[in-house]
Design brief:
This protein is an alpha+beta fold. Helix content is about 40%, strand content about 20%. Bound molecules: phenylalanine (PHE). The site of phenylalanine has 12 residues, from strand 10, strand 11 and strand 12.
């Protein structure tokens, strides 16, 4: 055997062995490659070694020297590959974690604005286009703004402790705070009518949207906390016709088409006359709240002259409006915080 052929076999062998060791992605792969190239019985290096005996005699020392060098190279390539795998090289990690960069990712869940807040924002927008600006009032309210100024005197049944969340802050008799210093969680947003009129001279054109509290047992249509939108317009020559047309615009802007508004006679201490407001959308009539012309006593309580100005006021339930739009039949769904419900809006 010519020396050149023998040396060529050695060169080819070291190249193949190094490539095989580098390609190994775990220790099992590497061990298989070790046996293939360095196996004691029938490894490929062993095979090439057999050729050494057939090399022409004068060339033998050179061939033997080269063989030993190549053997060392292959062994150190094996050692390097072993170190790479135990250090957790990129390929080793890839195989052990099963990470596949070509699999499409999972979309992160994005949050939503709560349907009630969405409705509040939309109603604010609709009423804003009709010239109503938003005024806010506190949820912890005094007796003057929740009752007295709204023409609800002490003996009125609306003050019953079974219908109100009184705060035990002052002198209480039979669960009712007496005199000055009584507080409660407001039972209606009509409180903000008073606060708005106390702050400004007429004309007044405001809405107020927020939480109100009543000690009702929660069921499909009741909840101890809910939201109202209050509207108040005080100016010269304001009439019931204005009330009706504003509420009609409210309904048609929110529900879109096929809406109607009807009034049923009712009673509220702070409006005269007073009505219940029903709206129909696609032939289903629902009561949304109350309304009326501001009672002269209320105008007087804030220092307005009922001979000079008149006012219209309405208070509608935001949950009802929102539920009607979306076909929700149980108000409790709004407050369970079940994302399967909430993510639909
Ligand atoms: N405040 C009344 C309620 O909560 C609704 C209302 C508001 C009625 C304004 C008349 C005028 O039931």
């Amino acid at each position: 055997m010519a020396l050149a052929d023998f040396l060529a076999d050695l060169d080819e062998l070291v190249a193949q062995a190094s490539a095989a060791f580098e390609a190994a992605t775990d220790t099992e792969d590497l061990e298989a490659a070790r046996i293939e190239f360095l196996g004691a019985k029938s490894g490929r290096l062993k095979n090439v070694q057999k050729g050494l005996g057939k090399v022409d005699k004068p060339d033998k020392p050179a061939a033997g020297k080269r063989f030993n060098e190549i053997k060392k190279q292959i062994e150190s390539a094996l050692e390097d590959a072993g170190k790479r795998l135990s250090a957790g090289g990129a390929k080793g990690v890839a195989k052990t974690t099963g990470f596949d960069p070509t699999v499409p990712g999972t979309r992160p869940q994005l949050g939503h604005i709560h349907p009630i807040t969405q409705t509040i924002e939309e109603l604010t927008d609709i009423m804003g286009r009709l010239g109503f600006t938003v005024t806010e009032g506190p949820e912890v309210e005094d007796l003057w703004h929740n009752f007295e100024a709204l023409n609800i005197p002490l003996a009125h049944p609306a003050r019953d402790p079974l219908d109100n969340f009184y705060l035990a802050t002052g002198k209480m008799t039979a669960g009712v705070p007496q005199g000055e210093g009584g507080w409660l969680l407001r039972s209606q947003t009509s409180t903000v009518q008073i606060r708005a009129m106390e702050k400004t001279k007429p004309p007044v054109r405001i809405i107020s949207l927020g939480r109100v509290y009543r000690p009702d047992t929660a069921d499909a249509t009741h909840y101890p906390m809910f939201h109202q939108i209050e509207g108040l317009l005080v100016d010269r020559h304001v009439t019931m016709a204005d009330l009706k047309s504003i509420l009609h615009l409210f309904a048609s802007s929110f529900f879109g088409d096929d809406v109607d508004v009807r009034f049923r006679p009712s009673f509220f201490p702070f409006t005269e006359p007073s009505v219940e407001v029903d709206m129909s959308w696609h032939d289903l009539w629902i009561e949304f709240g109350g309304a009326g012309m501001v009672d002269p006593n209320v105008l007087r309580s804030v220092g307005y002259d009922p001979e000079e100005v008149s006012g219209l006021a309405f208070g509608l339930g935001i949950e009802r409006v929102c539920a009607r739009r979306h076909g929700i039949t149980d108000i409790r769904e709004f407050y369970k915080n079940d994302v399967r419900f909430l993510h639909q809006f």
